[in-house]
Amino acid sequence: MNTMTLGHLSLAQFAALALAAFLVGFSKTAVSGANTVSLAIFAAILPARASTGVLLPILIAGDVLAVLTYRRHAHWPTLWRLFPAVAAGVVLGTVFLMWADDGIMRISIGAILLMMAAVTVRRRRAAEREAEPDEVTTRSGRLKARSYGVLGGFTTMVANAGGPVMSLYLLSAGFRKLGFLGTSAFFFLIVNVSKVPFSVGLGLIDGHSLLIDAALVLFVLPGALVGRWAVDRINQRLFEHLVIAATVLGGLQLLLG
């Protein structure tokens, strides 16, 4: 795998990666989608393809903390409806990774994120949603779940960028803060763990990447604690705006990077 070892990182590079790991923890317990900033930092310091393998275990650590924090608030009917489509997206993403270079990867995912942000803003302005996310039981809700599921699986496999896609789906489905965080916590723990064999098979995770992870994973916990403290102090409208803003920022970073 085209990557650098822990010993090759300068102090400034390691500090930037530690900040990115902190932001992963924060995003998992507060503003989902904010870890697109972490994605950009990892891709800027490490080779883009290799960075996805290094980042994945960090994300899983954040997912575990998020599940422990919000496990009572998950909406399982939504999760069961999403998983088959996500599995298809992960397979498509794996095939895509076999031939796509870094440039194509960034442009494709950046465009998808910006498109999803625009769709979500339009839908949120068109009508107020009910507090309970029951629209997944309708025909249009099922179609939307499948569409977002495939996109989420594809983007999470290709660049660990599925967070913004699924965040936009959960917002458009009318989830409130705690339901949003609990559902996304279980979703990403299951999906990210399922990606590990694919990433190992593609050579994205190896001994060198795990050594870097071992040094960075300690920074995820304080980020998660800060996120849990902050989420109770963020109202619903600001929460939604932050999620969408983080998605747009991540999409632009991918397109312009």
TrEMBL record:
<keyword id="KW-0813">Transport</keyword>
<feature type="transmembrane region" description="Helical">
    <location>
        <begin position="148"/>
        <end position="172"/>
    </location>
</feature>
<keyword id="KW-1133">Transmembrane helix</keyword>
<dbReference type="InterPro" id="IPR002781">
    <property type="entry name" value="TM_pro_TauE-like"/>
</dbReference>
<dbReference type="Pfam" id="PF01925">
    <property type="entry name" value="TauE"/>
</dbReference>
<protein>
    <recommendedName>
        <fullName>Probable membrane transporter protein</fullName>
    </recommendedName>
</protein>
<feature type="transmembrane region" description="Helical">
    <location>
        <begin position="79"/>
        <end position="98"/>
    </location>
</feature>
<feature type="transmembrane region" description="Helical">
    <location>
        <begin position="178"/>
        <end position="198"/>
    </location>
</feature>
<feature type="transmembrane region" description="Helical">
    <location>
        <begin position="104"/>
        <end position="121"/>
    </location>
</feature>
<feature type="transmembrane region" description="Helical">
    <location>
        <begin position="39"/>
        <end position="67"/>
    </location>
</feature>
<comment type="similarity">
    <text>Belongs to the 4-toluene sulfonate uptake permease (TSUP) (TC 2.A.102) family.</text>
</comment>
<keyword id="KW-1003">Cell membrane</keyword>
<feature type="transmembrane region" description="Helical">
    <location>
        <begin position="210"/>
        <end position="231"/>
    </location>
</feature>
<keyword id="KW-0472">Membrane</keyword>
<dbReference type="GO" id="GO:0005886">
    <property type="term" value="C:plasma membrane"/>
</dbReference>
<dbReference type="InterPro" id="IPR052017">
    <property type="entry name" value="TSUP"/>
</dbReference>
<keyword id="KW-0812">Transmembrane</keyword>
